[in-house]
Amino acid sequence: MKPKRLTKAAIFLENQDLRARLDDVEEMLRAIGRGEADALVIENGAGPKVYTIEGDEAEANRFRSDMLAMVSDAIVAVDDNERIIYVNAAAERLYGFPASSALGRKLAEIRTSHWPSPEAREAAVAMFRDRGEWHGDHVHILNDGRIIDIESSSTKLRNGYGGLGGRLSVMRDVSARKKHETQVAISETRYRRLFESAHDGILILNPGTRKIVDANPFMTQMLGYSHAELVGRELFEIGLLKDESASQEMFQKLRATRAVRYDNLPLETRAGQHQDVEVVANLYDESGDPVIQCNIRDITERRRAEEHVKLLMAEVNHRAKNLLAVVQAFAHQTAKYGDPANFTEQLSDRIDGLAAGQDLLVRNHWMGVDVADLVEVQLAHFKDLIGTRVLIDGPPALTLNMAAAQGIGMALHELATNAAKYGALSNRVGRVHIAWRVTDAPKPTFSMSWQESGGPVVAPPTRKGFGQIVIGRMAEASVEGRAEMAFRPSGLSWDLSASVENTLVSTGSRVQMRTGNDAR
Amino acid sequence: MKNLATILAEGDAMRASAHYVLHLYIAGSTPNSVRALANVRQICEEWLDGRYDLEVLDIAQNPALAAPARILAAPTLIRLAPLPIRCFIGDMSRRDSMLVSLGLRPLVAWSA
Q: Taking CB atoms and an 8 Å limit, are A101 and B41 in contact across chains?
């Protein structure tokens, strides 16, 4: 076949191309000669193939490189100018950059470091400068916004990769661990606060040794032992169980049922005081180790309240019977002494007076009645006259006991009813002066008086009515004192005197409960 | 005909405004490839300030990348723009020579 003739121009161009390729080959040979090229591309039928130009340590270097590539921690090397000169596969995954994009870049282009404080950063820099290495935790903020908690170990490259100096860092993403640690810390704070501030005593015990391993502050207060004194002791040694055998018994029960409850255990404090406690013990599993938690509740107050309720029930029963007896007596006496035509009205009126006094007692939790309150209640019908025609005069804060309150209350009611019907309050000008006082000599005495004036002329009654019995014998009996009445023409006067002890409630012992049927 | 001063001034203007497109062919993380990458990136940052696109092609991972540009060895830097296309083989560590060859610095210093 005849060869194709080329034009001059084509020959020129082909010549140019060949010259350029020759230049490239010469440049390549010079680069190889200078040691600046370390891979050759050889074309064959299957396409280009890359051959590395290997030095003496090529095998060792390849082995090291393969090992670094296989490490699961991220490895990044930078030169003295902070340019990345090596990243392994784990670092590519961590930062989301292929090595070809990362190599040669400044490290700061890939991520920035965030330190807990400037001092922490300075300390790390100083340690790296002085010792040539640094280990610690910090945070990396990546360009895509991700924030990664990093556990890092950096070493100075003394004879750096490719003849460069710099730094080699091995990094591990500990974000998940940090998050978990934070959650654990929050949980610890939360439940530690519950433990510390609980108003129940809490003991943590080792089931193997039966000894206390932890106690909350309330427990130390309850028992009077310090935390250090409680830790390492057994329950019977701190007065919670009576002896070692009781302790063993409780642990046996716990092992069998995993929970034990004692509704009422006598607890002896370090100072020898006794408290009633309720103990609930549970056997738990704590990371594979058994642990016992005892919740100890001081039930002294609860038991006191229960006793109080029991006493109150007995008292209510007693008082109901007492009241019924009084009402029954009122009915009998009103029928016996009063006008049968007015029976219903009189009895109803007296029961009203009794009820008013009763209300006051209930309002004061059966702890007695203030004299002034009693006077006010029994003279409620004459409220508008108080201060003008009804003068009340006595020291405040004198509290009558229950019997006195009932007896004096009924007497005041009778006196007021009588004054309204026949005495000083039956006209437009009469006056009543009610006074009470306490005198010390010769012995503490409570006295009370009702003095009428300005009413219709009084004539002594021709027969003794029930009202006189109420303000006389009944009032006297209620305070174990003496009542005197005088029917002077100028007005009725009534004086009651009794020992303070029988009349008033002494401060500090206001509650006097009866437990049996000791009706007076 | 242009005088020397005009030619040099045009060269300065071209250097100050031209957009550079560079392809760097490396062979994985071999020492020369790493050095070449560091050197090229440094030149780009210091002399081209945003006027460049640098693409790094790893022929160790993908040898087929070498064929279209007829790459003979690595590391190789190809200047695709501004024209003419230029080719450099080596670790690009001879800074002054590189700057002149890339057209970033005039061959001779002059004053108008």
A: no
Euclidean distance between CA atoms A150 and A173, whole angstroms? 5
- Out of B30, B57, B63, closest to residue A47 by CB: B63
Mutate to test the interface with B, among A18, A26, A38 (most CBs of B within 10 A): A38
A66 has a chain B CB within 8 A of its CB: no
Which of A473, A520, A467 minimizes the C-alpha distance to A496?
A473
CATH topology of domain A69-179: Beta-Lactamase (3.30.450)
Number of domains in chain B: 1
Give per-residue pLDDT as tens, A191-226: 999 999 999 999 999 988 889 999 999 999 988 899
In a domain, B110, yes or no: no
Q: What is the pTM of this model?
A: 0.50
> For residue A399, is it left (φ>0), alpha (ψ between -120 and 50) or beta?
beta
- Class at the top of the CATH hierarchy for domain A315-503: alpha beta
Q: Can you tell me whether residue A128 is helix, strand or coil?
A: helix
Per-residue model confidence as pLDDT tens digits over B39-79: 898 899 888 888 999 888 888 888 888 888 788 888 999 99
Q: Do A83 and B57 touch (CB under 8 A)?
A: no
- A-B contacts at Cβ under 8 angstroms: 125
Helix, strand, or coil (residue A349) = helix
A164 touches chain B (CB under 8 A): yes
Residue type, A331: A
Please report residues of B whose CB lies closer than 8 A to that of A162. 31-32, 34-35
